[in-house]
Amino acid sequence: MGLTNDLFPRWLLLLTALLFAGVLLRAIRQTDWQWLRSEQRIQHCLFGAAVVLGFLWQLRAGLSPGLSIHIFGMTAVTLMLGWPLAVFSGLLALVIVVITGREPLSLFAVNGLITVMVPALVTHGIMRWERWVNFRNFFAYIFFCGFFGAGASVAAAGLTMVGLLWLTGVYDWYHLVHDYLRYLPLFLLPEGFVNGVVVTGLMVFHPELLATLDERRYR
Question: Which residues cross the membrane (predicted)?
Fold first, then answer.
């Protein structure tokens, strides 16, 4: 989902820009730059994921004026790269979306926060929980981090967007519930399926591409 029209007041754009900058700074600080420079495989995954996401986000459907939906794919990218690099990859994809005219540059921070950062952080949180519980079956990683993580990340992003639209008075609560929130569960299923299938395929055929996967825990 993404915003295609400038719907928000200036103060909210400034607030989201500050939040965006804070998360981006955190991602920069938590990135192992030496590891990134030395691992061509990770570089290829980062830029390759950005291109795939940039193409995937072109395929969208409009709900209300200025509001569209699309598959995120951020959960699979987060499990591949870790949340800091997933944020960079997602923002590069968002640059592609802006260049192609799908979303305005003025909403880059808002869309970056909703489309990229919230899903990446939610997926990271679920992955940390899965590690903390210390499941010993690799299906737990696939189901909780892949399928469930994707659905939860989209739900969090959708609720964040609805909250912003409601608090600023862009749409009233009745409109948001009847034209968006009641359809939100339908968005979770394809998102969970797409990301879950990608994570399952990588875990079976190329587990080395999942930077967040600790294979020693499932032996």
Answer: 12-29, 41-59, 71-99, 105-126, 138-167, 187-210
Query: Would you kindly state where each structural domain of the chain is located, as residue ranges?
Result: 2-218
Tokens 């986000």, located at residue = 57
Q: Residue 126: which of 159, 152, 100, 104 has the closest Cα?
A: 152
Architecture of domain 2-218: Orthogonal Bundle (1.10)
Half-sphere exposure of 90 (CA within 13 A, CB side): 32
Looking at residue 170, the DSSP 8-state letter turns out to be S
79, amino acid identity: L
Question: Could you tell me the two tokens for 150?
Answer: 């994707």
CB 93 within 8 A of CB 48: no
CA 168 to chain CA centroid, nearest Å: 23
Q: Judging by beta carbons within 10 Å of its beta carbon (0-12, 13-18, 19+), is residue 133 exposed, middle or buried? A: exposed
- Long-range interactions of 127-134: CB distance < 8 A, separation 24+: 127/78, 127/79, 127/212, 131/214, 131/217, 134/217
CB burial of 16-31 (b: ≥16 within 10 Å; e: otherwise) equals beeebeebbeebeeeb
Q: Which of 101, 201, 199 is nearest to 147 (CA)?
A: 199
pTM of the model: 0.92
Q: Which amino acid, 68?
A: S
Please give the average pLDDT of every successive group of 10 residues along the chain, which has 219 residues: 66 91 96 91 95 91 66 95 97 95 88 95 96 87 94 93 84 80 84 94 91 80
Structure tokens at 100: 């192609």
